[in-house]
From TrEMBL:
Keyword match Transmembrane helix: yes
Ranges for domain YdbS-like PH: 85-157
Keyword Transmembrane helix: yes
A Pfam entry, by short name: bPH_2
Name of protein: PH domain-containing protein
Amino acid sequence: MFSNSQIDIDSLPKFQDVQLQPISSKYIYILFFNLIFTYGIVLITLISIKYIFNQNFLGNYFWFAIAGILLLIGIQAIFMYLNFKTRKYGLREKDIIYSAGFITNKTTTLPFNRVQHIEISRSFLSRKLGLSTLKIYSAGESGGDISIAGLPKSVAENKYAFLIDILNERV
């Protein structure tokens, strides 16, 4: 006989009770480097066009454009810093939780039985700072993939080994 009893929602474990761990504070250097590098290319290109190819490039608005880009860098740096402070992760017996976002906070909880693939990646700057990115891919197209950037290399490797052990127990 089919049974579909109602669940007492108050008795379910709450993800808010999990003590989430922040990512490494060194990761902010990578974020700021990427910001400066990207806008640096734009600024160098504008200045090169003005002084190498055409003295009247954008006319009187050239310095307003430069000031606007510098203001945009400042605003984006502030939001980047505030967003960085919200990046946290946590492990429980049966799932992993990742939370990020200053204006719009997104919390993803991925049950281990949905984990399909795990990898660790390290960019050039990440290697220099001893950081890694742990990527956890879920089964299906639910958008539940988690990418935790800014973990110390040893922490990422420990989490990777822990998750691999759990995946191997399923097989």
